[in-house]
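Q: Got a minute? One more chain.
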Amino acid sequence: MKQNAANPHQIYTDIAYLSDRMLSRHGDIIFALVILALSSSLSFFAYERVLNIERPESILSSQLKAGSRQFSVIQNNKCVGSIESKLLHENTFYLNLTGELRFSHGQERFQANFQSEAYFNPLGQLTESLTKLTNKESRVFVQTHQVNPIKATLSANLGGKRFSHAMELPGPLILSQTNPGWYELQRPPGSPGGELLHTFLKPASEKLGITLKEDAPCGDDQQGKIDLTPYLNEANSLVARFLPFIQMQYRSGSEDD
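A: Always. Here it is, folded:
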């Protein structure tokens, strides 16, 4: 039997491919950048954790508020970045997310700038999106198109080395109004691939202890950096444990088909 486009076993394999390539060739920092790119571009991850704010200091709500909003990114009472969001709705929806985050890892210090745009049709379905994540040495682009399945392409220039990888995710992703001026981004219920990606990326904001404060500019004495070391150590361990499981699941799925 032929596998459909959004087969969860293929998604397992795609995640394994990305994780293995990042860890084996480009090190911890690049792996972190790719995770950030995926979380901000493959649609519902960033929008649930960055824009979807019901209370100014919470990043756990699933609500999107129309209009323009500005946030300071806070970790350990220090300002580690800034984010600006814009959600516009006429006949269609347009979502824009820009910002910068400052990081540290051992003796390394760097800043990542990102911009993400997403377009939704009159039914509220995601039709295309583009995310750009850059620092001094690396460029990561994640582009999606098509309603269902959602086709995603990850392209990167990492220290002068280029690569590209395509994958497919179950769709559609839909923006629906919950209250006047407030929207909720919904993913397909019970989607195996969506749940796997959600589980894989969910710990980022929680492990890093990040919160957002709206309309709260940070002074020079409040500046800080996100220490990636604890999260990267755990991420490396997770990937090392996760890859054999992915391979086993994929082999099992191939045999079933």
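A: The first helix runs from residue 8 to 25.
Q: Perfect, thanks.
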